[in-house]
Amino acid sequence: MEAKKFDFREIQGREDRLAPGHRMCAGCGGTIAVRNVLKALHPGDKAVVGNATGCLEVSSFMYPFTTYEDSYIHNAFENAGATLSGVETAYHALRKRGKVKEEYKFITFGGDGGTYDIGLQSLSGAMERGHDLVYVCYDNGAYMNTGVQRSSATPMYADTTTTPSGSESDGKPQSRKDLAEIIAAHHIPYVAQTTFIGNMKDLYVKSEKAIYTPGPAFLNIMAPCPRGWKYDAPDIIEICKLGVETCYWPLFEVVDGKWILNYKPKNKLPLEDFLRKQGRFKHLFKPGNEALLEAFQKETDRRWEELLKRCEA
Amino acid sequence: MPVNTRMSGNEAVAHAIKQINPDVMPAFPITPSTEIPQFVASMIANGEVDTEFIPVESEHSSMSAAIGSSAAGARTLTATSSCGLALMWEVLYVAASNRLPIVMAVVNRALSGPININAEHSDSMGARDSGWIQIYAENNQEVYDNFLQSYRIAEHKDVKLPVMICQDGFITSHAVENITLWDDEPIRQFVGEYEPEHYLMKADETMAVGPYAVSNYGMEAKRAQAEAMKNARQVILDVAKEFEELTGRKYGFFEEYELEDADYAIVAIGSVCGTAKDAIDELRRRGVRAGLLKIRVFRPFPDREIAAALKHCRAIAILDRAEGYNGNGGPLGAEVTAALYKAKAKAETVNMIYGLSGRDVRVEDLIKVYGNLEKLASGKIKYDDYPYIGLRK
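Above: the input entities. Below: the structure tokens describing the complete assembly.
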């Protein structure tokens, strides 16, 4: 299907498929992610939305109310990939037998807990089998629903409730896993990494491509969490911008195996600028912890250089 | 015309699947149920059915995909055994609580450890409280007939619950025995088309599945599910009656073999019941009034009917092919004893464990059990513990 031209007014004027009245926090990145991904569905197109257990699920489908305008299915924490692959296969079976007449799109959402960690096998299986669905990870870098425990998406040195900073601890000792790269290694048609930048064009364009590219697609969206990252709710957009400008969270796509860098900052900002606004990194700015900041900067630079090489190849 | 032929229990299930031609089957191989998805994949490859097969990467994903498929409005099935069923545990409850009429062929096998691939009921007995209907078979004919009846029960508007169709690993699943196969067309008419009331992709409506429910609603949801399980009792009997009209084969909650005037009875599940029937025939020739109650439907548990059928017996041995690890015996023992107590039955009872990890049980073993029941009834022996049959010293 031909991608529609990005028309900010037209897109923002589309009826929300995530209705108001849900119970997500003010300043929650997950909600912004879901709302904007669903806006990329062309008006009138039908979809089934899936969801792994997490903040989003327990706050958006509290019996007897659902905030989704489309059909929706939540199964458990670790199986959003498998669940939607069952829905998508049923669609083909029922279409073949004339029991479903209309076209449907399939989009499922999981946090980093349900995606990077407990649900990785189920996601990998769904991607490898080639189901025509989009898996969207709203990555807020910890298990926020259970109260900010570390995940494999948590950045190094972050203070979480299972990697608390203290006299004997610098926060999380390991650096984060690169899930977009892992999914790209499945050689699926479309993988992209994005976050909330400017008028959301990057997020919109990638969501639309993911939804309308036949076959499996994966979106990794950095979606800050005010509770876990400890920032003032209005700062979310500034934080996302700094994530990109410091090259901590690069914007890229992998289209049919080709790596494409979508944005290269003219003046790469120091990582500190991204970290300083977040309470979870407060301990890094205490005197004597300069080496930690340096190590984190080095790791960020190394990954950025790797990505540049990949995108040039 | 029905065909008399011979095949294994797994082949019998595959033949039932072929006649039903369901919409979707996700599956992951595990001995001894592996043949079932293999047969289905072959039938798809040869154009005998047009079911969509999902070769998932685990049993957890198998049940998860089955839940998605069933919620989407497709007639869905899967098959598994042992550790595969255990891996599904969490989502078995999700399937039942979302009232999804999935059918699962369970080929019973021991849970680890030690790892062992042979017949035992520890797998499905462990899942006995997951909200699934459970129907067990003595032989290949029964597992075939049970499978043919399964969707009628699962999809009934008063039930809407998933069903496990269980058979004993290898003894039933792999042994080739005589079987009568029913004609395709009458079976297709009997099973009928699946027409769910609501589903994710129903035209002109949307649906949300799998809510978070606070205490204000959660308890009512669970009670409604429990009512559906109670409703299944009548539906199982009605479907069996219709099946009997079609085939002449009679099914109920359980089978009574020489039970009406029996002094001494065995209660058991599965293939061991064939062995028990041989023991009974021998004992009856000797003038011993021995009988059998073979459980077919374990969930819902027909407690009143079981107690009524056993009430006149002097001594009853309840045989479990699963250890309960509660210090008192197995699950069937606990439930049948409770049913007898509620019915104020006077019979002496003993719960025995047999056949774990596929340990063979012979006719002589069961003749010995009946001998011990005579002694128990006349006060010559007492059981302080629950005995094992055929345990090596």
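Note for the figure: Chain A touches chain B through 48 residues (CB under 8 Å).
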